[in-house]
Amino acid sequence: MSKRIITFGTFDVFHIGHVNILERCASLGDTLIVGVSSDQLNFSKKNRNPIYDQESRVKIIQSLKFVDEVFVEHSLEKKREYIEFFKADVLAMGDDWKGKFDEFNDICEVVYFPRTPSISTTEIIEITKQI
Ligand code: CTP
């Protein structure tokens, strides 16, 4: 049976850490489904608007060869619904989320990958502001 992987993120100002996590997620199975945070959800999580709007971020993620399905994640509270709706066998996230999604162990396998060191969207924005 084919194995379905789901992951979530904002993926704003797309960078190598994003490529690495998506590639690692894809390597766990056959189909990779990515939930991209809506602009509103990103604002509520990070207290700032993303640089790229949700439509652009979805388009960037859809263009990757190891991504199969993309949807907009509107609410953090709906994780369980999304996992069930997309029939995911595995939920995979970067280890900045370690432990945070263990509650979903009853419906899927939960995997955390180490983050790519020394790069994040927030850091890129901060550095760019200083130039
Ligand atoms: N990620 C990663 N390595 C990095 C940056 C992000 O593995 N260096 C992973 C995160 O763990 C998450 C996914 O990429 O699973 C999307 O993270 P996101 O929050 O969109 O990216 P960040 O660069 O962490 O953004 P920010 O700095 O705004 O928190």
Automatic annotation (TrEMBL):
Keywords: Nucleotidyltransferase, Transferase. Residues 6-126 form the Cytidyltransferase-like domain. GO terms for molecular function: nucleotidyltransferase activity. This is Glycerol-3-phosphate cytidylyltransferase.
